[in-house]
Amino acid sequence: MERNYKMKIAYDGTRYYGWEHQPDRETIQGKLETVLQRMCDVETVDVIGAGRTDAGVHAKAMVASVRLDTDLSENEIRDYMNRYLPDDIAVTEVRVAADRFHARYKATGKTYCYTCFDGPVKPVFNRKYYTALDSELDVERMQKAAAYLLGEHDFKSFCGNPKMKKSTVRLVDEIVARRNKGYVTFTFHGTGFLQNMVRILVGTLLEVGYGRMEPEQMTEILEAKDRRAAGPTAPAKGLCLIRVDYE
Questions:
Q1: Model pTM greater than 0.70?
Q2: Residue 54 is among the residues annotated as catalytic for this protein
Q3: Cβ atoms within 10 A of the Cβ of 235, count?
Q4: Is domain 2-96 annotated with CATH 1.10.10.10?
């Protein structure tokens, strides 16, 4: 009997070309679908993710939905997948979901964390999960700049897709910059994010942290609705999807 399942997935995105299935390239969605096709002995399985993380971006709790015809229990599905998935992808939970549950359309919010390091001696063993910086950041200035970005705005200046035809208006209700020893983390929560949006927000806030932009310039950047007005796109490896919200 076919059922709809909700899955939570953790992955190290370092060696993948992002979430979304691409021909002849290793992606998270592609790896999951290959294992599930083998498990169900079918030619196609459609795994729907809550979002489409970019190449090199990580996730602690990506949510996906998938329809499967299997007699295996939820835990047996989880264990089968983890047996055959590579070491850098793990399914942490599998649950039967309501028939109408859709991982992307039913999501009400997402939390991302971006990690930088600006201390004198860079940590070696988690080097794949933070961006090393050359000089120290002013966290207070960045937090002041972040306040201008909160709320519902047209974030077109922070969108990496110049051909975006859909609305670029998004609601961002939390941006917190914190220092913990040599690490500086940025936590973002919003209803949804545009392509590269979090990384461009970080790149812009870093410019403020270095003193190359003023916090008040965030208003001008939003009003410009032009990608060239914002800062650079921060590297992918510092970004991790932390949580997806559902009602």
A1: yes
A2: yes
A3: 17
A4: no
Tell me what pLDDT residue 162 has. 84
Q: Is the dihedral of CA 197, 55, 104, 22 positive or negative?
A: positive
Question: C-alpha distances in angstroms, 219 versus 38, 176, 186, 211, 245?
Answer: 51, 18, 19, 17, 28
pLDDT digits (tens, 9 = 90+) for 44-93: 999 999 999 999 999 999 999 999 999 999 999 999 999 999 999 999 99
Residue 102 CB-half CA count within 13 A: 4
Q: Distance between alpha carbon 236 and the CA centroid of its chain, in Å?
A: 9
- Check residue 165 and give its pLDDT: 84
Q: Residue 42: what pLDDT?
A: 95
Domain 108-246 belongs to what architecture?
2-Layer Sandwich (3.30)
CB 113 within 8 A of CB 98: no
Collect the ranges in the chain with pLDDT lower than 50. Answer: none
Written as six digits, the tokens of 202 are: 């970080």
Nearest to 222 by CA among 164, 157, 170: 157
Instruction: Given the residues 54, 69, 134, 138, select the one marked as catalytic.
Output: 54
